[in-house]
Write a structure and sequence with these properties.
Layout: H1 6-17, H2 26-34, E1 39-42, H3 49-59, E2 63-67, H4 71-82, E3 91-94, H5 100-111, E4 117-120, H6 122-125, H7 128-135, E5 139-144, H8 164-171, E6 177-181, H9 186-196, E7 202-205, E8 213-219, H10 224-237, E9 242-246, H11 250-262, E10 267-270, H12 276-287, E11 293-296, E12 309-314, H13 321-328, E13 338-344, H14 349-354, H15 361-379, H16 384-391, H17 405-408, E14 413-415, H18 417-429, H19 436-444, H20 449-453, H21 470-482, E15 486-488, E16 496-498, H22 500-507, E17 513-515, H23 542-559, H24 563-566, H25 569-578, H26 583-586, H27 594-614, H28 629-643, H29 648-654, H30 659-671, H31 679-685, H32 688-700, H33 706-713, H34 720-735
Parallel strand pairs: 1-6, 1-7, 2-4, 2-5, 3-4, 5-6, 8-13, 9-11, 9-12, 10-11, 12-13
Antiparallel strand pairs: 14-17, 15-16
Length: 736
């Protein structure tokens, strides 16, 4: 290949790209390529890995074949390169989207030596007609972008990527191969090099540390509405900033994007189910800052060159740390602020495992290991940066990064010397043949089929660590990995081996701090617990609650109705958390629909507004949660069926729900202010005397409790269902 020196490279860099200096390893990589060497380049997102093949491709004789997994990514790269040259033929794509005439034009430009870069998908590369064509042209080198797709251990494995080496050999030109990826663990790196037959390649590995990125893992609320509320609040706190929210499914993407739009957040969805034109339009609107937030599946982001993405939110934890790292790496690429917040609930892990249920046993085992690493990261109470960098084979000497949740709010530590020694001895005594989970089960004394099979319940360490839980011991194993006392075997992923340093530690240990297990927090006495429509233990404004109860009593006297007919207690409690100051906001309170808010809402809104202003209360930035379509449809069906005077049993059967579930839905409809006329059903199936007694009971009662009504009226004579039905009649006729 042609020789080039550093000075010439800098001249060409400025001439083609307008940069005066290279970033990181770029110059060293390009110089090695000019020496004809195979290269393996690991350069995190934002490090400029595409320039490593673009600049030499422009300088060398012939055409560089760039293998890339995504059509959208190829198009972006080609458009960018064409901006640097006067001839559009300088760069082309060759893939399934082209017509026959377009393919002929691409091949002619290559034959005419106009084309310096040809972007192809691996599927295109393997077509026989293309292989024959490539044999007859001058190829400068091959660049395999997103090379992690080669490895089964990579986060975006593509089987067709594993066929690249035999195809290159078939084409037969002895030119360098450059494999590039933004993320690769030592295991993935080994797998890529082995598959491409480039074990002797020069490896250039940039630091994975993105010091400007803030990492945080938040406990994911169980209710979808609570999670959406938290996300809306986060975005409002980062108003007018660009951000990406990653969701696992297309349905989540659509629903969350719609919720954000309802809440006046400029947002658009992006997933593979949208047609190509819509995807391109939504992506362009994000790049042009016509929208602030893109809600997307992992289909979005590869090759997106937007330097000022200020936050990346994960609605769910991704299925691998490589995926997580690459997706968070799309924020703060200009070295400015980058907030990376992930929501995590261990129950979601079952969803991730479902994705691999139809795969081979080997693929399922790989998926489990990758998920286990993600869980370990999410559960960990130590520095997130230390864990991420260690995962990619890089050490981090700082004890506190100052830019992750665990460092900013550190957890209490304990002296862990004896526990580290215990687990190292256990690794040794089990012949270094087992994975972390099995070893933890031994320490906590858990009886599993594997433990019985290997008779590990007879070991001296069986149950020795039972004072602590799995999370503590998982943290201890991770700390031992970080301290380089143990390693995970690269060929048998997950099996733990002692290092020479670990063997020495067993005989001569030293102080290592571990995170102290968290104690269950005692409930705050100042928090009132209710059974209403909010989380138990959530603080209710007691002063406002008293004011609203007095107002309710005043209105109930005027209307000659029991107070609970105006608003039930759980509605008042929710008002004391959400502080609605408009009728529109009152509509979102538990048990309050349009009917009730129009009839009774204004005086309550006035009291709340005055209380908020006088006490300078900072209201939660609550949101309008979009109704779930299925539930709305069910309510409409119930109302229409009752209007047609259908028997309740028939309504329940037609929707495959129980009678109890149907009555609960009707109660919810009535509580929100909608009139429901059940007289046709009550008159046909219930004793008129019972109906009158129950109705009069609720006129005089101080509470709408079914249990108290049963006690007062007599459980022997009255049933719970008939009391509930008459209570619905009572609320509908007097309250709505």
């Amino acid at each position: 290949m042609a020789k080039v020196d550093s000075k010439e490279l800098h001249i060409m860099l400025e001439r083609f790209f307008g940069f005066k200096n290279f970033k990181g390893n770029q110059e060293a990589v390009i110089l090695s390529l000019f020496e004809g060497k195979d290269l393996f380049v690991i350069m995190p997102t934002g490090g400029g890995k595409s320039l490593c093949y673009q600049l030499p491709a422009l300088m060398l004789e012939g055409t560089a074949i760039i293998i890339s997994p995504l059509i959208a990514l190829m198009k972006n790269q080609v458009d960018a390169i064409r901006n640097y040259g006067s001839d559009p033929g300088i760069a082309h794509v060759l893939n399934s989207t082209l017509s026959k005439s377009e393919i002929r034009q691409v091949k002619q430009d290559i034959i005419d030596k106009k084309t310096k870069m040809l972007y192809v998908a691996p599927e295109t590369l393997t077509k026989e007609e293309n292989v024959e064509f490539f044999k007859d042209i001058q190829i400068s080198f091959y660049a395999i972008d997103e090379a992690h797709c080669i490895s089964e251990w990579g986060h975006d494995f593509r089987p067709e990527y594993r066929r690249i080496r035999p195809i290159v050999e078939n084409i037969g030109q002895n030119v360098p191969i450059m494999a590039l990826t933004a993320t690769a663990t030592p295991k993935v790196q080994h797998d890529i090099q082995k598959n491409l037959g480039m074990m002797e390649a020069e490896v250039y590995k940039s630091s994975f540390n993105r010091s400007n990125l803030y990492y945080e893992v938040r406990q994911k609320p169980k209710k979808k509405e609570d999670l959406e509320r938290e996300i809306v609040k986060f975005i409002r706190n980062n108003a007018n900033k660009s951000g990406i929210i990653y969701c696992t499914s297309r349905k989540q993407v659509e629903e969350l994007s719609e919720t954000l739009q309802i809440n006046n957040i400029k947002s658009l969805p992006y997933h593979a189910g949208l047609d190509a034109a819509t995807r391109v339009r939504n992506q362009d609107m994000f790049l042009m800052e016509e929208v602030d937030v893109i809600v997307a599946t992992i289909a979005f982001g590869m090759g997106i060159d937007k330097p000022d993405v200020r936050f990346v939110v994960h609605y769910d934890m991704p299925k691998s740390l490589e995926g997580y790292y690459q997706e968070t790496g799309r924020s703060g690429r200009d070295d400015g602020e980058g907030l990376c917040v992930a929501f995590y609930n261990y129950d979601d892990i079952a969803k991730l495992e479902k994705f691999s249920k139809n795969k081979t046993v080997n693929e399922q085992e790989i998926a489990k290991q990758l998920i286990a690493e993600t869980v370990a990261y999410a559960d960990s109470l130590v520095c997130r940066r230390v864990l991420l960098l260690h995962y990619f084979g890089e050490s981090y000497s700082e004890t506190n990064c100052g830019n992750c949740d665990n460092c900013i709010h550190p957890k209490p530590k304990l002296e862990g010397q004896e526990y580290i020694q215990m687990l190292l001895e256990l690794v040794r005594d089990t012949k270094q043949q087992f994975k972390e989970k099995h070893l933890i089960n031994i320490l906590i004394g858990k009886s599993t089929p594997n433990i019985k099979q290997f008779k590990h319940n007879d070991l001296k360490f069986y149950g020795e660590g039972c004072e602590f839980d799995e999370q503590f011991w998982g943290g201890a194993f991770r700390q031992a990995l970080i301290e380089e006392l143990i390693v995970k075997d690269i060929e048998n992923y997950g099996i733990l081996k002692l290092t020479p340093k670990g063997i020495k530690y067993i005989d001569k240990s030293y102080k290592i701090m571990l995170v102290k297990p968290q104690q269950e927090e005692e409930e705050d006495d100042e928090m009132i617990e209710f059974s209403g429509g909010h989380k138990a233990g959530e603080a209710v404004d007691k002063t406002l609650f008293s004011l609203l109860k007095d107002l309710r009593k005043k209105i109930s006297r005027k209307e000659n109705l029991p107070p609970f007919v105006i608003f039930q207690d759980n509605s008042l409690e929710d008002m004391c958390i959400q502080y609605p100051t408009t009728i529109e906001e009152m509509n979102q309170i538990v048990g309050v629909g349009q009917g009730k808010s129009q009839k009774y809402g204004q005086p309550f809104v006035d009291v709340i507004k005055r209380h908020v202003e006088e006490n300078e209360i900072e209201r939660p930035q609550d949101m309008v949660v979009k109704s779930v379509v299925n539930k709305s449809a069910l309510k409409v069906y119930i109302i229409q069926s009752i209007d047609r005077k259908l028997a309740l049993e028939d309504i329940a059967i037609s929707k495959s729900i129980s009678s109890d579930e149907l009555i609960a839905e009707i109660e919810s409809i009535v509580a929100s202010g909608t009139k429901i006329d059940l007289n046709y059903y009550i008159e046909e199936y219930m004793d008129p005397y019972h109906v009158e007694e129950i109705y009069e009971y609720f006129r005089e009662a101080e509470t709408d409790s079914i249990e108290e009504a049963l006690l007062e009226l007599g459980e022997d004579e009255y049933g719970e269902e008939e009391i509930r039905l008459v209570r619905i009649k009572f609320f509908s006729e007097l309250g709505n």
